[in-house]
Amino acid sequence: MLIKEAFLTFLISMVPVIELRGALPIGVGMGLHPVAALIISVIGNLVPLPFLILFTKRVFAWLRRHFPKLDCIITKLEERAEAKKETVEKYKFWGLFIFVAIPLPGTGGWTGALIAAMMDMRLKKAFPAILLGVLTAGIIVFLITYVFHISVPLIS
Q1: What are the residues whose beta carbons fall under 8 Å from the beta carbon of 96, sequence distance 6 or more?
Q2: Across the chain, what does the average pLDDT equal?
Q3: pTM for the model
Q4: Domain spans of the chain?
Q5: What share of the chain is helix, strand, coil (3-state, %, to 5)?
Q6: Which residue, of 13, 31, 106, 122, has the greatest Cβ tally within 10 A?
Q7: CA angle at residue 87 from 86 to 90, to 5 degrees?
């Protein structure tokens, strides 16, 4: 396996906004097998999420106290989560799952974890929904990536 490419794919999948939606096709583009890129991207995307669910509110409060100039950025992040919170609140587990699973800009594991944190959802309830959403988004992006990269066989 291409260790450098796998590690870079893993790191990219941990980046907010890009997440696995960007990391998976980048990994395939760097030469990783699509299935390997999928697995690495999903795992990398999931790594920061429990920490976001557990500590976002505390970190935001600390940042506001120690770095008041960051308040406008924190407020924007909270407003973004608040705007998407209604749908998630209405359907709870399935709302969070669907929100994370749809691979569109502004959705994904990071935003799902932020919403869960703003809703004071417990990790036990939020993480399984986000996990399923990330897996579903990964499969969708995998299929799209594979269609555009047909020259690579699924099973070597």
Answers
A1: 88, 112, 115, 116, 121, 126, 129, 130, 133
A2: 89
A3: 0.85
A4: 3-148
A5: 80, 0, 20
A6: 13
A7: 85
